[in-house]
Design goal:
single chain, mainly beta, Jelly Rolls, 2 domains, 9-stranded mixed beta sheet, 9-stranded antiparallel beta sheet
């Protein structure tokens, strides 16, 4: 079936598509990862399938796909239209946009592959849009998903059944992150000995407990048991980063904590944390220095005492290898700590502008197998118990998503902020 339009209809359709993407705030053409978004090459799977462009597959007769002036027209039966395979980054949120119209039921999926060309382990197929009935009016589609931690490539699959689907201007791009918190001890606010002001203006000031401000070093000093900066309970929900175990595969919320800090003594867990206590749900980032002289970054995500993940970067206490970070040198260091949202042992930590992450040592006795990590506790900088951080903190940032400022990955942001040993303070 040939899908024909008058000049007027084509102009109207083009205008609607343009407006749809404008309203979505899309810059698809500038950052599109999808090969051939104009459908210049469409061929049927089989012996005559072309290596470039798109391929379609008949699932139920009668089915056909053709392209016309930048559109792909799917007629089914049931028919699949596959993009070419393209490279992606693991643990990254991607957003698909497309304009669609017609009479068919349309579904959109993405399939993920590892470097060895085998399907990804956690989830191989992500459903971006379940089958839904189209209309003759052009409708902008928009859906997002996080790539698996072991993914290297992917392709998009459109599935149309029981009618005609017209697709235009598909695009896929990595989603930028959002700055949720920015604390800088060099700009603490008007009451530096009692409150620490959030420079984003999005959160109420943090209340100080057993913490001293040092104007000379532009830092807050943590020397006592239980020393902490406590966020306001009204802002608590902003820092609940759910995992796949409660949200569904690929739906957990990635986030990144940026720390500029210095050890001053034995330190336990919880330099940045959202925990009610050691047996409840929540998450924690720790700079730890134990009785054996070992130092490390530690991450915890848990739904309760038994269901948790714990990672040590580069090591863990008691693993028999005595691996340490060697950050106990009376100097400030920059830590960029990224958790993907999967709830698995797959976080990444970048130290002093490193391009490569620290080695992850997973805790073998526990898995975050189910349950929510959300809680009503406020965000804390410092301790949630007597065994908290001992040292100084210059600045803290928290970003939601898998990208940071100007679309930088956590690795790129680590290098940018470290600035060859002269870390850039928050502006």
């Amino acid at each position: 079936m040939i899908h024909l339009y008058s000049t007027t209809t084509l102009f109207a359709r083009g205008f609607l598509v343009m407006m749809a993407f404008y309203l979505l705030g899309s810059d698809v053409m500038a950052s599109n990862l999808l090969p051939d978004p104009s459908f210049t090459v469409v061929s049927e799977l089989g012996f005559k399938a072309k290596a470039s462009g798109w391929n379609w597959q008949c699932v139920e007769e009668p089915s056909k796909v053709h392209f016309n002036q930048g559109e792909a027209v799917l007629q089914g039966g049931k028919v699949f239209l596959h993009s070419m395979e393209f490279a992606i980054e693991p643990g990254t949120i991607y957003e698909l946009t497309c304009a669609a119209s017609g009479t068919a039921k349309l579904a959109v999926e993405v399939l993920w592959w590892k470097k060895d060309r085998l399907p990804t382990a956690a989830y191989h197929r992500s459903i971006l849009s379940n089958p839904h009935l189209l209309t003759e009016d052009v409708t902008p589609l928009r859906a997002s998903i996080r790539s698996p931690a072991d993914a290297a490539t992917a392709y998009i699959r459109f599935a149309a059944e029981e009618g005609r689907a017209v697709l235009e201007s598909p695009g896929l791009k990595a989603v930028g992150g959002e700055l949720l918190l920015k604390l800088d001890a060099a700009a603490p606010g008007t009451e530096p000995q009692t409150k620490w002001q959030d420079l984003t203006g999005r959160n109420k000031s943090f209340a100080l407990q057993s913490v001293q401000h040092s104007p000379k070093t532009g830092s807050y000093v943590f020397t006592r048991a239980g020393a902490s900066c406590r966020g306001n309970s009204q802002d608590a929900g902003k820092f609940d980063f759910e995992t796949d175990q409660a949200s569904g595969p690929g739906r957990g919320s990635p986030f990144t904590v940026v720390l500029y800090a210095m050890f001053r003594g034995r330190s336990g867990t919880g330099i940045v944390n959202k925990m009610v206590g050691p047996t409840k749900g929540g998450w924690s980032i720790g700079l730890e220095w134990d009785e054996f002289g070992l130092d490390r970054v530690a991450t915890i995500q848990q739904s309760d005492k038994k269901r948790k993940t714990l990672g040590g970067f580069p090591g863990l206490a008691g693993d028999g290898r005595d691996i340490k970070l060697n950050a106990r040198d009376d100097r400030f260091h920059l830590f960029v700590i990224h958790l993907t949202g999967s709830g698995r042992h797959d976080g990444r930590v970048y130290f002093d502008g490193s391009a490569e992450p620290l080695t992850l040592t997973p805790w073998p006795w526990g898995v975050l197998s189910s349950g929510s990590v959300r809680n009503d506790a406020p965000l804390r900088i410092g301790s949630f118990s007597e065994n908290g951080f001992r040292g100084e903190i210059g600045f803290v940032e928290i970003w939601s998503g898998s990208r940071l400022q100007d679309g930088r990955t956590p690795a790129e942001y680590s290098q940018y902020r470290y600035n060859q040993g002269a870390p850039i303070r928050p502006q």
